[in-house]
Amino acid sequence: MNFETHIGTDITKAAAYLNSNEIVAIPTETVYGLAANALNELAVSNVFAAKKRPLYNPLIVHIKDVSEVEKYATDVPELAYQLFETFSPGPLTIILPKKDIVPDITTAGKNDVALRIPNHPFSLSLLQMLDFPLAAPSANPFGYISPTCADHVYKQLKGKIPYILDGGPCKSGLESTVIAFRENKAYLHRLGALGIGELKKIIPDISFETKDDKAPVSPGMLKQHYSPNTILLQCDHIDQLLFEQRDKKIGIISFKNSYPIDADKLVVLSPSGDLNEAASKLYAALHYMDALDIDLILVEFMPEEGIGSAMNDRLERAASKFIK
């Protein structure tokens, strides 16, 4: 189905589309999501179709507040409530045993549902208008760079969705952190905008299980993801590669360093060295570079601390498309 795609700030209009089982791009504090009624199989199937997302990859269900957790999940451990109360609304997703009200297509046939409470005034207001939760993976074609502004969504999904709710640039700029509980133990399945240091204050012994290409229990576990169409390499010695690859047209994304290259082919994420600022600009920088007439994108490794770990995780997955 082809749509005339509109961008606007009318939350009531977005709600009307969603009540009609249409799909709408919505802003969150992490990235823009492609939202649909999470309890309606047809609406959810339209999300998979618009993104060309494989049906084995589960979706995150967005709810309006903590009181809704037990509408859609069962056997909720007390620690999950503690995490929700501490970090929500915010970039935290928790995987829990699902109730039958959540259709299997939303969870990719799995018995668990991923729940989160987004921290954006538009998405929270929208959820308050609806009597159902929203399944909302990132609003981009599967495997491509996640969108952090309405324009990113429009360029990628124009004609495939009727409406993009424009809430401005995303504050965090990286997807949510995802955890799950099994046999009274917590597992981290996706590094994200909520830093590991913060999580470990509550769960000091959390285990890491962040990659699964065959049967992912969480979004963001596939080895290859978040990739531009232009070849991307993450590297330590950019000056050396600039010399070695001097016959190529190169763009550079750096954390805080400058390089001897044309200004329009260099993005410095945070001249002051602020990792949160850098994270909020990372996907926008990848979109910008991918639109240039260049052969190669070089990206610095980020400091392996705080949200820098999640940034490196995304860049590793983005680069894996080109590293065989």
Characteristic terms for this protein:
alpha/beta; Rossmann fold; DHBP synthase; single chain; 10 helices; eleven-stranded mixed β-sheet; four-stranded parallel β-sheet
Task: Summarize the model shown.
This protein has 324 residues and is α/β, with parallel strands linked by helices. The chain contains 10 helices and 15 strands. Strands 1-8-2-3-7-4-6-5-9-10-11 form an 11-stranded mixed sheet, sandwiched between helices. It has a 4-stranded parallel sheet with strand order 12-15-13-14.
Account of the protein in words:
By secondary structure, the chain is α/β, with parallel strands linked by helices. It folds into two domains: 6-208, DHBP synthase (Alpha-Beta Complex); 231-319, Threonylcarbamoyl-AMP synthase, C-terminal domain (Rossmann fold), CATH 3.40.50.11030. The chain is 28% helix and 19% strand. The chain is built from ten helices and 15 strands. It has an eleven-stranded mixed β-sheet with strand order 1-8-2-3-7-4-6-5-9-10-11, with helices on both faces. It has a four-stranded parallel β-sheet with strand order 12-15-13-14. A hairpin with a 2-residue loop joins strand 9 and strand 10. Helix 1 (11-19) packs across helix 5 (121-129). The radius of gyration is 19 Å and the shape is globular. 47% of the residues are buried. The mean pLDDT is 93.
